[in-house]
Write a structure and sequence with these properties.
This protein is mainly α. It has one domain: Ribonucleotide Reductase, subunit A, CATH 1.10.620.20. Helices cover 45% and strands 8% of the residues. α5 packs antiparallel against α6. The structure holds benzoyl coenzyme A and fe (iii) ion (2 copies).
């Protein structure tokens, strides 16, 4: 393991200074990244001082440093988790040495996975670039920017792999990552969720709860990879990811807490510009369903091949929790629409790798939602937030061409059309939410539609000056 070099133009622990060609290529990409950031990132705040955490190493405990920085000067670095001695632990090549170079026959598939992962990172920054204007508190604004700069670092992590292991093709891909644009019809981002607008803070908190959590599961699956540089990159990315998901879970939680307090007082949340529960439910329905699509089809030969060849493992595969590390002996039960009903099908487990990962994700989301509901209950509110069925509002996988209600029952097109306005955000919902999005910039103060944080960042008080405007 090489030492952490924090003084270099590109901070890293991959010994960049001893690979002059690679260093030159990355130093050529760096100003293009900065240009992209200044234009497509949170560009209204290029000159402000933000109290941010920067990754400075990968050791447990002391991996991050907090200080004020101007975002365009953020020290985006390349950090791989410490290597561990291991052999391939799943798929067809069990027991063989892990790879430190890309095997020729895996090159295209691996490049595609890395590019797809990479593409989501700048996409999310683009989607969120205007939210600073309506932050409900200074600390929320800081959280947004923290998430943004770290998504930028995740892009660096993937671009490092492309430049190091994929030659000229990799360099071309790295350029294209800065050329695609979220939501642009001519050069869209690769995955659908990353082309949807994140218009409001309610969208942002749902996105960081549900979409960043897809990130956790995809990264966890890549962290099992037999291609060791990918495994070690994604392992370290997961360290940062925890904060993104926490931002989401706490954010939605604070919205619901505020609503719950009002309901407990017998007030209509709308009468004071807060969020009604049914509206929050529609936002949850929308972001949860679009995030489920990010797992790809439940029945997928792509996923089977990625598993067989050792590129992507199951969630926590390395913890030895699966009886059959080749996943050859078992089947997966999948309910598939046929005519106007659901029939159970069995598919070979390997083909169900996306489905399995999705199931783990859904269980995780259920835990989050029950924490929200426990808080509502403590406030004396009877209504709850519910996760819709995994069949609801899907555009990938076996349910994509059918209509289901949130309970997961197959319904007709007419039934869908008659009810969709109570299931997914309407134009009126969006306008109402937009009308509530007024910036609050006095330290320690919060917009009326959201409760305060319970703790500050890095042990600072809630009324700390997390953003200093210039
Ligand atoms: N949109 O075999 P299938 C994150 C395509 S989030 C558009 O069913 P596969 C983050 C698919 O490409 C984590 N297209 O699925 C979060 C394929 O196309 P081809 C991102 C889609 O391939 C917040 C066809 O449909 N990481 O980090 O096993 C903020 C059939 O596909 C979609 C990754 O995604 C879709 N939703 O799985 C910031 C990890 N779904 O081959 C960051 C890398 C599927 O027929 N990516 N398709 O042309 C992968 O592992 C896989 O590409 C997927 C899809 C899991 C996404
Ligand atoms: Fe990320
Ligand atoms: Fe994230």
């Amino acid at each position: 393991m090489s030492a952490v070099d924090l003084e270099a133009k590109i901070p890293n622990n991959v010994d960049l200074k001893n690979d002059k060609r690679l260093l030159r290529a990355l130093e050529k990409w760096q100003p293009k990244f900065r240009e992209w950031w200044k234009e497509m990132g949170p560009s209204d705040y290029n000159t402000d001082q933000i109290y941010l955490r920067t990754a400075v190493g990968v050791g447990k405990g002391g991996w991050a440093h907090f200080d004020y920085v101007k975002m365009p000067d953020y020290r985006w670095g390349i950090f791989l988790a410490e290597p561990v001695e291991r052999t391939i632990h799943f798929g067809d090549n069990i027991g063989s040495p892990i790879w430190n170079e890309v095997p020729g026959e895996m090159r295209n598939r691996l490049r595609r996975l890395i590019v797809t992962q990479a593409d989501t990172e700048p996409a999310s920054v683009e989607q969120q670039r205007l939210l600073g204007d309506t932050a409900p508190s200074l600390m929320d604004m800081r959280s947004l920017f923290q998430v943004n700069v770290e998504e930028g670092r995740h892009l660096w992590a993937m671009v490092y792999l492309l430049h190091t292991y994929f030659g000229a093709d990799g360099r071309d891909e790295a350029e294209e990552l800065l050329e695609r644009r979220s939501g642009n019809a001519d050069k869209p981002r690769i995955l659908e969720a990353f082309n949807k607008p994140i218009e409001s803070w309610l969208d942002f908190f749902c996105f960081t709860t549900f979409t960043d959590r897809d990130g956790k599961y995809q990264l966890a699956s890549l962290a099992e990879s037999s291609f060791d540089p990918l495994a070690r990159s994604t392992q370290f990315m997961l360290t940062e990811e925890a904060y993104h998901m926490q931002t989401g879970e706490n954010g939605v939680g604070r919205v619901l807490h505020r609503t719950g307090e009002l309901l407990a007082e017998g007030k209509d949340p709308k009468s004071v510009g807060a969020m009604p529960l049914d509206l929050v439910q529609r936002y949850v329905n929308a972001w949860f369903s679009v995030s489920m699509d990010l797992f790809g089809g439940e029945d997928s030969t792509n996923a089977a091949e990625s598993f067989a060849s050792g590129l992507k493992g199951r969630y926590r595969e390395g913890d030895g929790i699966y009886k059959d590390p080749k996943a050859l002996a078992q089947a997966y039960k999948l309910e598939v629409p046929e005519g106007n009903r659901l029939v159970e099908q069995e598919i070979p487990l390997r083909r169900a790798m996306n489905g399995l990962l999705l199931d783990a994700y859904i269980a995780d989301c259920k835990r989050i939602v029950s924490r929200w509901n426990r808080d509502l209950e403590r406030l004396g509110v009877k209504e709850t937030i519910e996760l819709p069925s995994k069949r609801f509002h899907r555009h990938q996988g076996v349910y994509a061409d059918f209509d289901f209600n949130p309970a997961g029952e197959l319904i007709s097109k007419d039934d869908w059309a008659a009810n969709v306005d109570s299931w997914l955000p309407t134009q009126a919902d969006r306008e109402y939410v937009a009308s509530c999005m007024k910036p609050v910039r006095e330290p320690g103060k919060y917009a009326n539609w959201i409760g305060p944080h319970s703790v500050g960042v890095n042990e600072q008080p809630l009324d700390f000056e997390y953003v200093k405007f210039h």
